[in-house]
Protein: Exodeoxyribonuclease 7 large subunit
Organism: Paraburkholderia largidicola
Amino acid sequence: MNSESPFSSSAGAGGDAVVPVSVLNRAIGTMLERSFPLVWVSGEVSNFTRAASGHWYFSIKDAQAQMRCVMFRGRAQHAEFTPREGDKIEVRALVTMYEPRGELQLNVEAVRRTGQGRLYEAFLRLKAQLEAEGLFDAERKRALPAHPRAIGIVTSLQAAALRDVLTTLARRAPHIPVIVYPAPVQGAGVSAKLAAMVETASRRGEVDVLIVCRGGGSIEDLWAFNEEVLARAIAESKMPVVSGVGHETDFTIADFAADVRAPTPTGAAELVSPQRVLLLRDLDHRHATLARGFGRMMERRAQQLDWLARRLVSPAERLARQRTHLQQLSVRLASAGARPVRDARGRFALVQMRWQRWRPDLSQHRSKVSGLAERLERALLRQHERHIARVETLAARLEVLSPQRTLERGYAALLDAQNGRAVRAPSALKPGRRMTVHLAEGSADIALSDVQPRLTDGF
């Protein structure tokens, strides 16, 4: 802190400071606001007053002291509840000075019931846990029956909420039986007892829908409906469950686990019960509609009966009509049977006439074929004779050129005995070389002993 006093400027010549009261109070207020941060203060409410401006004025006290408080309208309108005389509360406030009167006071920014902070944190933790498990998923929610055969209520027999629910059910649906499963709604171990009643109703199966309800109260009063055991019992119930706990602004874990949340117990009764007046009105409308439909059906049946009566004839007349009809069918059948035969004969005669017209003359074709056969035979004979003459001419020419005829005229053919080739030049005749000589009447193998080649131009 600044070591210089805020009143040093007001010091006189002798060193004594003289300040107005307002300046002193303002300085004290400034020092308080700087020295004390926002703090939570607990105590009991006393002398609570709501001014016409909307500001709250009250005191909080304990056994040893008290402190005046002010909560301005901008903060008060967002408070979750209005404190009452004797309530245990906690306020988040700034220590200030009310300068006109020089009174110390707390400037309140938020207010909650005592212990509500810890309870609310526990509420949020359990809500997050069950929500992560899928206990609040919309897919798990079941629709309420439109016309329940019986309605169950889980609450205390002394609760005002039970009277409100019963009164609403008696007014809206007096024809529906109501079964109460009594259980305390406040105190130690209440959650387990409420859960046991929910499980009992689910096991018995006596009702089609179940209401779990309680009147309004503080978060401590409603804490039984924020326990895990009750939430799981509601979620596992075989029939739909409606939660009607507290007032419209009160939310509990049971509200999230239930299939439907009602703002109040009375609202829960209205949700599960069809209004008898509307049911009777709908029944009258359906009865009138059914009566009109039945009347129209009877009129159509009467008209149909009249039409059938006009069509009704005596058996003798009916037999005569059927006999006449049978004769007509017989004539039509005979005509229908003769017509295809007649048509077929006509078509056959037409085809026969066309065939006769285009029928070929076989005798003429036979004579023509005979002539062609004779011509073919003569042509083949002449061609054969020509081929024979040609073959004879070629044979004669071949005979003239035959090597045998050459040998018969005194010639000889000399072949090398090793390779069988004809010897054409005298140079090929060497002593000791074996040769084969072909003559007109045979052949002989010879060996050359003395060779004197002589070249000549001919014989």
